[in-house]
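Weekly structure sync, notes
Attendees: PL, DS, HV (note-taker this week)

Item 1: Chromosome partition protein Smc
DS walked through the input record. Source organism listed as Hypnocyclicus thermotrophus. Sequence as pasted into the shared doc:
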Amino acid sequence: MYLKSLEINGFKSFSEKIEIEFIKGITSIVGPNGSGKSNILDAILWVLGEQSYKSIRAKESRDVIFHSANKSKNFAEVVLEIDNTDRQLKIDENIIKVSRKLFKDGKNEYRINGNKVRLKDISELFLDTGVGKSAYSVIGQGKVERIISSSTKEIRDIIEEAAGVKKIKLRKEEAEKKLEKVKNEIEKIGYVETELF
Ligand code: ATP
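Item 1 (cont.): predicted structure, written out as tokens:
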């Protein structure tokens, strides 16, 4: 699996649609200060479902929509194309397109191969692949320093994500919550039963 291309339209400094093709191997992005290099990385994190605006250097959601003194966009859209010929992502397609669109009214739209999905579906698709928004495939300025000074619990989380056990842990937590709910329901039914008989 590798990133094939990135399409950005109306996101941060990119007022018009641009497309970046990545080749297999190493791609370097160079440019003067303030030209938008980090905005490209922000776009990748954002399309993968980043919810923390601090992580993508914005104060609130609409900050990511392009605006300037004489022109503003009504939406921001990012489309990430992934080569999945090795089937690392569990969808039986060679190319997977993940997209996110944010409208000025704050509505977000997520899609996988053109179909509307929930944010949860995008997170689950990338969980334990090393790519998701919480994975360490995007290392921004200052992140290495933050990792080194992390607590033992945070370092354990990083290792669990890399080892691929995070997905199982999340499923276990979900199952435990459901079990707790069922237990409560059984208890309630028990009370009603005692009252009736
Ligand atoms: P450096 O080399 O200094 O780290 P860079 O190439 O990584 O710079 P970025 O930080 O990606 O540059 O881009 C910063 C630019 O993006 C700033 O000029 C900022 O005004 C612009 N920008 C950020 N958000 C928006 C937005 N919503 N609309 C228009 N421009 C924006």
